[in-house]
Known about the structure:
- It is built from ten helices and no strands.
- It has 181 residues and is mostly helical.
- It folds into three domains: 14-78, Arc Repressor Mutant, subunit A (Orthogonal Bundle); 79-123; 125-181, no CATH class.
- Helix 5 crosses helix 7 (111-122), helix 6 (97-106) crosses helix 7 (111-122) and helix 9 (144-156) crosses helix 10 (161-170).
- The longest helix is centred in the middle third of the chain and has 14 residues, at 62-75.
- The protein starts with 12 loop residues before the first helix and ends in an 11-residue tail after the last helix.
Amino acid sequence: MTQEPSDDIFAGENTKKLRQRRKTEKPLSLKAQAVKCLARREYSRSELARKLTRLSEEAIDNDELEHLLDELQEKGYLSDERFARSFTRTKAARTGNLKLIAQMKEKGLSSEVIREVIQEEAGSELERAKALWQRKFGVPADDYKGYAKQVRYLLSRGFSLQAAKAAIASGSQVSFDEEDY
């Protein structure tokens, strides 16, 4: 029983035919690749540019890429603000403002867009921290070690120290201060 090394032993006949068809089809244009990506989900301008350069089999001219991105923005297919709103809606319930801001900057969004979207879409950081704390813990910590664990949890999710302390204090009758230890 000899098999060709390129064949997957678990691939059915349909999978093999698809691979052969993909090899013979001519590659999509840069614009078609961009529209295909945007049909699946929203992208920021810089994120889409990185993806297109990675997907392209040939070297891409930066002027051509910028012209394409401008065209997509003019037609309304690409919008940093729409991407930021979508991103914030999906992440805000379990993420603090600090982490949201860092992730959006990583995606290449401007500070103005980030600030505007977080103010409009994210809601109160304290309320989100309270809801997350309630879902995860629900009961106040009995000792300082448990309190520190709860604070670290909220801090790791990108909430500010003030929001984390206030969220925990809202469900706790006992207050832990650093001065006591």
